[in-house]
Amino acid sequence: MKKFSSILLASTMVFAMASCSSTPAETTATTTAAPATEATEATEASETTAAETEATEEATEATEAETAVLSYADYAAAELETEVVIEAYVQGKQSWWDDKATVYLQDEDGAYFCYNMACSEADYELLTLGQKIRVTGFKTEWSGEVEIADATFEIIDGNFVATPVDVTAELGSETIIDKQNMLVAFKGMTVEASKDAEGNDVPFLYNWDGSGEQGNDLYFNVSVDGQIYTFTVESYLCDATTDVYQAVEAFQIGDVVDMEGFLYWYEGINPHITAVTPAA
Predict the structure, then answer these.
(1) Region of residue 169 (phi > 0: left; psi between -120 and 50: alpha; otherwise: beta)
(2) pTM of the model as a whole
(3) What is the structure's pLDDT at 28?
(4) 108-147 in b/e burial notation, b at 16+ Cβ within 10 A?
(5) Of 89, 104, 116, whose CA–CA distance to 265 is shortest?
(6) Neighbour count for residue 92 (Cβ, 10 Å)
(7) What is the sign, positive or negative, of the torsion defined by CA atoms of 202, 208, 210, 212?
(8) Looking at the DSSP assignment, which residues form a beta bridge with residue 36?
């Protein structure tokens, strides 16, 4: 009985010692595994952050590329019906209605005509002469007139007022189209006869065919070097109360005048005249 007890006791002690000796090994294995897991998680987190940063940078670069502001040369070279972003300065306001504005813009290198640009009435009042704006829209063409349509804009810092460029010598040339929409001047132009609805010679017409009345657009013929051109006073731009409108109404056939205006285009040059004075 004692022998059995002794054997039992010895077995118990051996089992206990075995149990005690295995605990530290398991604890050590568990403890050493933790740093490896943390290192893996840290690496994965770092890789995720780097990937997210790269994706953000690529998205930013793509956005900047899409909204890059074009120089006038790049704008002129852009295909029709493509989106364009330009920065230029207000030189004239033709009209505002139904939260849309039509304006003449220019920078140091060229000019732009923005047709029906989205604009509140309050913002229209902020489009003062020389104010710089950034315009985003689509380059389009109508009867030869290249314009920016479906546009939005924002006012930015800057001011520039263009000096009219004398293009008298370029009338009839192929190069004059390069100055489309610019503020230009014509010197020593002779008022020629137009035919009214009854076939009479008159110095100007209300509407292109003489079918209008005071307050409508004015059309008149002028010549230089034996060539006759048709110019317009756009009534939305310069209405019947303006000096230029009244000056054209006072024309006599044979008058010689100097003029300024925007080099608008309609199946050829069709300047929108903003100032008339007797020739110097």
Answers:
(1) alpha
(2) 0.77
(3) 40
(4) eebbbbbbbbebeeebbeebeeebbbbbbbebeeeeebbb
(5) 104
(6) 22
(7) negative
(8) none
